[in-house]
Amino acid sequence: MRLSTKARMNRLFTHGGCLDVAIDHGVCNEPSFMVGLEDMPAVMNTLIDARPDAIQCAYGQADLLQSRPEKDKPALVMRIDMGNPYNDQRHRVMWSMLQNADEPIIGALEMDAAAVVVNLFMLPDEPELFRQCVENISRVRAACHKYGMPLMIEPLVMLPNDVRGGYQVDGNAEKIVTLTRLASEMGADIIKADPTENPEDFHRVVEAARVPVLVRGGGKEDLKTVLMKSAALMAQGAKGMVYGRNIYQHDNPKAVVSALMAMIHQGASGEEAWDIYNRG
Fold first, then answer.
1. pLDDT tens digit sequence for 30-41
2. In the CATH scheme, what is the homologous superfamily, with its name and number, of domain 5-279?
3. What is the residue range of the signal peptide feature (predicted)?
4. For residue 86, which of 165, 183, 154, 140 has the smallest C-alpha distance?
5. Does the reported pTM lie above 0.90?
6. What is the DSSP-derived secondary structure letter of residue 104?
7. CA pair distance 208, 153, nearest whole angstrom
8. For the residues 201-225, what does the mean pLDDT come to?
């Protein structure tokens, strides 16, 4: 790993783990994701004060983090692609594209990001969407290697649109492991992976990755359930989480961050993390 890549990785993985709070949902063009993100300056201030390891957003919101003068503020992870697979209704044409096709990571370099993140969609009967993602990653990987920028790949295995309404996570371990392996083969420095339906299978995802694995959160759930599941996934080798709606859509995001940070950096159990949240 190049020194410049390692230096940026160190900004994310303080003491070996990382909590990356995702607020990049505006690129999904899905109204339900915007609940809790209406006032982005206020959201960003709340999260900076909560002190996770990183905050994930797109170029258009990155100034809210990087204009702050604190030396110890969270690192920036920049979302550099966008697509339409997140909506409730299936589109006639499914697509995923880089936000800057000519210079895909120039905005991340400008904003001093610690990493960039790109999707790898696997949707039923959508081979062209998958091909677009592979092409996107290939172009981004080359730019990341040139400039020493860590690449986070987000492999997403989704159920058919008609199963639960909208494309939902398919927790099948075989599918997640296989797509994670592809992300590893394409040169990911970090992999943001869906949880397996049985958390005890998640070690297989970690083994396939060969790089740090952060668990993807998905939609908002009961918080105690989230914490217990997160602890089980950490026990299987995850290095942290990339959670969004399970943080910013809660009444007390700072307390949720404190609970998850204790789990990642102090080895707190699910029950201990729940107690920390309630004290917050």
1. 888 889 999 999
2. Aldolase class I (3.20.20.70)
3. none
4. 165
5. yes
6. T
7. 14
8. 95
Are residues 214 and 242 in contact, defined by beta-carbon separation less than 8 angstroms? yes
Q: Residue 259 is which amino acid?
A: A
How do the domains of the chain map onto residue ranges?
5-279
Which residues lie below 8 Å from residue 222, measured CB to CB, with a gap of 6+?
none
* Residue 146: C-alpha distances to residues 72, 105, 120, 170, 237 (Å): 27, 10, 21, 34, 30
Helices assigned H by DSSP within the chain: 3-12, 40-50, 59-66, 106-110, 127-147, 161-164, 173-185, 202-209, 223-235, 245-248, 253-266, 270-279
CA-nearest of 256, 188, 244 to 217 is: 244
Q: Is 110 helix (H, G, I), strand (E, B) or coil?
A: helix
Among residues 153, 155, 157, the alpha carbon closest in space to that of 139 is found at 153
